[in-house]
Amino acid sequence: xxxxxxxxxxxxxxxxxxxxxxxxxxxxxxxxxxxxxxxxxxxxxxxxxxxxxxxxxxxxxxxxxxxxxxxxxxxxxxxxxxxxxxxxxxxxxxxxxxxxxxxxxxxxxxxxxxxxxxxxxxxxxxxxxxxxxxxxxxxxxxxxxxxxxxxxxxxxxxxxxxxxxxxxxxxxxxxxxxxxxxxxxxxxxxxxxxxxxxxxxxxxxxxxxxxxxxxxxx
Length: 218
Fold this sequence. Notes:
Keywords: Signal. This protein is an alpha+beta fold. It is built from two helices and eleven strands. Mean pLDDT is about 80; it is low at about 1-50 and about 55-60.
């Protein structure tokens, strides 16, 4: 019995040694294959991340804008275009100016922004009223060019005495103004016409291109 048991034990030990050797060889091969693979460096990862990040597009800088609020501190008149005979430009403060003789100049509410000279920058069209201390209130339609975002007095046209403006707009390079006026045979205090007039800027001239009248009753 003892003689038969010894060969069986020996055979079992031999099988165990073969199996262990095979496992060890497989592990070494796996380690060798892992070692053969090139390592990915942190620099490569950073480079991939950099390439994957989209480059932001550069946007064009918008032109300096001119607003109706800017006219409240603008000058009325210039050396080239004198306002109502004043030799020097009239500086507005809060939309108003008062002279030593009792005269006042006031910026009116109607205003519009749009390109009038074709340079691509929006200009401003506004209305200024001069009161010389008497009963007269003289209205002027004025244009300020956009010069780097600042208003520069460019042109004007007289709308008459006691002719309040109700609206101003700019379209297709022309300014349209709606104001109240009167027939020639009416008293100055009477307003019986609503006039819509179109104006075009040319240099320092603001020229009427036509108007239409409609009856108005106050």
